């Protein structure tokens, strides 16, 4: 809690919630991306080595996976609304934690390449210039956030009452529901500049700020709800989309007469359609089979696929902080040669995976903006957003309990000292640092204990290749089997058909704990486009039957949802890092000297500047 005194209030008793235990043909109809931005020089300094400078764990987290220049991501319109309340920092200081400059807050903008919209997202003006430093609550009992599909009627009544009161607050009250929704807009669509760097906009997605920001955003939202119903122990529900019984939109959010309802949702995905955690698209029903049999079959397949996606993103591909949290983001990255800056907006496995898939699944199909959950600026307007991010936050808790000595948060001061501004339950503005929110129990909450079935959902090979005869060189055998594979020159434009390319592997690393990683470099795309492609290795099937997340050959996906503003360059460039070590073991190809990478486009158009393999320690 912030260091303020709460007014006395009548407490309501929280009821117990009930628990039920190939030919490549570029798409000529689309605009060419090369008309917008020239391909990168792949020998330039923008290509960053995957090797750490020494053996320290945090050096691995800063070597290549997590540094980028924010000039290419989500810039926005400046302006001044808050006068003397700005924070001041020496721009030449060695430490560069991120801080929002409250005095710079201006309208956010939303761009779809065809239209531009200004959105007022800044918080109400401070009544005075006082900003309180956050203090975690002391000695409070732990409140447990329940799974949304398991709550009982008494809990639902209390939750709806709290949400109704939040929506009924005066529009200029910072605790009003729309004011709370605007927090996400302001931090995600360029309303704030960075303290000390007025021409550098702040963005909390696609970096190591993603989990801490959303944790504290939900924390204060929850505290406000509890305050409004006089229950400081109130805990919001989470959408348990990583478990089969929670893979549809929770029923409590689907009543049109409930304050939990939002009309800007995809009606085709209600009421009982399973979420697709890989790409956000629902199962397509076919009419040439018996409806009941086919639906049940596809449900079983989708559940299996979702569980495999979760295993992939939480276990197989997130063995380090930089893989799970995303790229380092330091203040004031104004030069490509600045220490800690590379042109690489990159989220972690969950942010780029299940998190974005659920946003796409829920958001309405109403171009050009796809509100509410389908666009960052409007996502907070849907009450389901907070249940969704509750489960995202739960993933952070679970990740730190999984086996692996590198599953630890960053220990860099620039991360720990980065800060955000929120209004608390008493309408006081509070400054929170990342170091304040590393443990949810320190904040006074945890999650209801539910089964985690994806821990038992390790992918399996589509087909085990015949073992190589003793004495036969595996590399020669691989080359002989793949002479017919497609060979491409870089850059590759990926828009309609799958592309295969053989990539040489490096010699074994000095450190046996180093993770072998597939690196897709200089991925260029329009930030305003929905984009997705899947990546697999050594998939010998034809293009009409690409491998899926339940297959060991599947190593990950790249996803983008529209997040542009009207004052940024439309084209962005990023990299994709996909850990390979476990996949190589499952496929029994650790000794091969090359792999064949298959890229399968699902939506949109991108170019890929280079593909290589490197090691991360």
UniProtKB/TrEMBL annotation:
Residues binding Cu cation B are 355, 359, 389
Q: Where is the signal peptide?
A: none
Q: Which family does the entry's similarity section mention?
A: Belongs to the tyrosinase family.
Alphabetical keyword list: Copper, Disulfide bond, Metal-binding, Oxidoreductase, Thioether bond
Question: Which co-factor is required?
Answer: Cu(2+)
Name listed for the protein in its UniProt record? Tyrosinase copper-binding domain-containing protein
The Tyrosinase copper-binding domain is annotated at 205-222, 382-393
The UniProt record lists the 2'-(S-cysteinyl)-histidine (Cys-His) crosslink at 188-205
Highest rank taxon of the organism: Eukaryota
Per the UniProt record, the lineage of the source organism begins with: Eukaryota, Viridiplantae, Streptophyta, Embryophyta, Tracheophyta
